Amino acid sequence: MAPLVVINVVGLTPRLLAHMPNVAKVGAAATLRPVLPAVTCSMQATLLTGAMPREHGIVGNGWYFRDLGEVFLWRQHNALIQGDQLWTAVPGLRTANVCWWYAMGAASDLLVTPRPIYHADGRKSPDCYTRPPSLHDDLESALGTFPLFNYWGPTAGIASSEWIIGAARRILERERPDLMLVYVPHLDYDLQRYGPDGSEAIAAARAVDAALAPLLAEDAEVVVLSEYGITPASRPVDVNRALRGAGLLEVYTQEGMEYLDPWASRAFAVADHQVAHVYVRDPADLARARDVVAGLPGVDEVLDQAGKAKYGLDHERAGELVAVAEPDAWFTYYYWLSDDRAPDFARLVEIHRKPGYDPAELFMDPRDPFVKLRAAAALARKTLGFRYTMSVVPLDPAPVRGSHGRLPDAAEDGPVLIGPFEGDAYEATDVKELLAGLARRRAT
């Protein structure tokens, strides 16, 4: 039988599907009800396991690793997902993973995942990890080096999606796996930058649709789905600054810069779009921390243990409290009280050192008249092989116009499932078995 190709078009909603004729031809679009938090890592883990976060343990795009005393986002090891996954649900299938998360160490036969090179002299080069290793040279020969998930300039992120789609096509044509999962990230960028309702969102949807056309034309059975929808949001909520003001969060200082001190803090938050995990060291501080967070404008609810259980989020990795933003609000990770005390990584695209997600990375600082000139100078240093810093990210989050993470208030703003299915609505926990059912036909 033809391979089964599952394409994850991040941010795809029924509203945007109206501007994507190639994707719409795949089939009827069913409502897909996400889990809380509706963010990439939690949703992908649910789609792969058929389980809630309480079971698979992926409580967000990152969390506080209590045994290490560190906040880490965007870890890559598949072993972080607890429970059986789609890769082994149907014995005997040959599988391929093209940029779905938690790929490293997964049981897929073929895989491609972003893995930049961090050079010894401090430079960073975009690249990818593949299995088998020979796949890397083949893809680089055919497509060039894996591009950075770039946010600025005329390509504005579509280059990485086009490379991923090209890699999927090459693997499909040369390797013919029975099951292949593909992650296409482009809609994430402009929908957060400009919001989901403007002309920029429509243009992004059309760009992705055009880029996907060659893959959709391959000899394959196709399923298209998404993880979440992005909704209008323009109110940043500084949850860590509030906890610091209440005397619960502590920082330490090096070279005049302040750093979050999770070991010493009585309470702090790991901000993740519209959800924030609040870690409270001493149960005696729970009530105080809850009152501080619940009293912030833009906070919809604060979940305690019973509240987390209601949403299937009661896993040991979750915060003692979980804050959910109002529909037009989202959480910053900021903890400093004066910008001249901000750490140097705050002005960079630095997804691993920041103790929370930072959508301000989507922008060059609009208050800096020389920002593009400084970016060009940094790029020139990189091209010449010198160390460089792209210190252009604003410390003011006001430009952000879209977010996600809370459960959608309307199906039109939520994710979709498109394929040979009869229902008009599915839970995210249903998807693993739906895909396994299609895959089983390839094993008989």
TrEMBL record:
SUPFAM superfamilies: Alkaline phosphatase-like (SSF53649). The lineage of its organism: Bacteria, Bacillati, Actinomycetota, Actinomycetes, Streptosporangiales. PANTHER family: BIS(5'-ADENOSYL)-TRIPHOSPHATASE (PTHR10151:SF120), ECTONUCLEOTIDE PYROPHOSPHATASE/PHOSPHODIESTERASE (PTHR10151). One of its GO terms (molecular function) is hydrolase activity. This is Alkaline phosphatase family protein. Pfam families: Phosphodiest (PF01663). It comes from Nonomuraea terrae. InterPro entries: Alkaline_phosphatase_core_sf, Phosphodiest/P_Trfase, Phosphonoacetate_hydro_insert.
